[in-house]
Amino acid sequence: MSNQLAKSFIAIKCVSKIMIPLVSWLIKSGVGYKDFHLTLKRIFFEQALAESKKSNYKITDSSLSLLAGLNRRDIIHFRENKPSDSDHEALSISSRVITLWVQKKWDKKIAFHGTPISFESLSREISQDTHPRTVLLDLERLGLVSEVGDTIILHSESFTPSNDSTKCQSLLSQSVNDHLQSGLINIFERPNSFLEQTLNADELTPESIEELRLLSTQLWKELSHKLLDKAIECSEKDKGKLNAYYRFSLGIHQYNEFQYLEEKERDRTLK
């Protein structure tokens, strides 16, 4: 295997592991592959363009097509059409059903079957390929509708799952982005430029996990208070300076999971 193929294989394997919670996040929010793939295409285009500029490559549709793995028709489309809000707000079939329901100003209680007003007819307007019952089950899972007898009850006039917290999701996405960016710059561009480390321990009991959880929370509180005081001091000191346009981020996470015996044996073998 060539060095480049080995690097590609490692990257695919590692990124696939990262994608597991991201895809789970999308599915929990009612977004499927068909709803997200156009956004993913644009991300590949934008990052290929950024990489070309950073490396001083000659930028052509063909070079971007090769780098991003997209056909030239997609490259031309993304080059000629700037991203809009709609590009980043993937509307699944389920979300479009809710949107259409509200647009039609129908009552919040409608029958599942029948014409002209029913959940079935509403769903068929959006998609002939997905069965209305499947759409209904998805919306029930997200807490947006419920079924009582033959009546479908709308609980929300926007596609916002009941367990959703926009602020928390926004903070999480920024935190994960910062963590990945720091690690990738350390690996591919400037080694040891950023603090990016993780502490791991295994073969622990639930009682030990709780001890470590409480200690990590306590230590983080102490560190965050000291760091916040310093950040406020620096912010006041730098206010108004011409080069004061940087952002600082420091995060911490804690996670534990049950590890099967065969997984631990496999990990020992790999070590």
What is the compact description of this entry?
This protein has 271 residues and is mainly α. It is 59% helix and 4% strand. It has three domains: 3-88, no CATH class; 93-154, Arc Repressor Mutant, subunit A (Orthogonal Bundle); 166-270, no CATH class.
Kindly list the characteristics that best describe this protein.
mainly alpha; 271 residues; three-stranded antiparallel β-sheet; Arc Repressor Mutant, subunit A; 3 strands; 4% strand
What does this structure look like?
The chain is 59% helix and 4% strand. With 271 residues, the protein is mainly alpha-helical. The protein folds into three domains: 3-88, no CATH class; 93-154, Arc Repressor Mutant, subunit A, CATH 1.10.10; 166-270, no CATH class. A three-stranded antiparallel sheet has the order 1-3-2. 11% of the residues are buried. The model is unreliable at 85-90 (pLDDT under 50).
Strand order of the largest sheet: 1-3-2
- The average pLDDT value, as a whole number, equals 87
Structural class by sheet pairing and helices? mainly alpha
Number of helices, counting only DSSP H or I runs of 4 residues or more:
10
**Unreliable parts:** 85-90
Shape: extended
Q: What is the tally of beta strands?
A: 3
For the CA atoms, what is the radius of gyration? Answer: 24 Å
Elements, N to C (H/E): HHHHHEHHEEHHH
Share of helix among residues? 55-70%
Strand content: under 5%
End-to-end separation: 23 Å
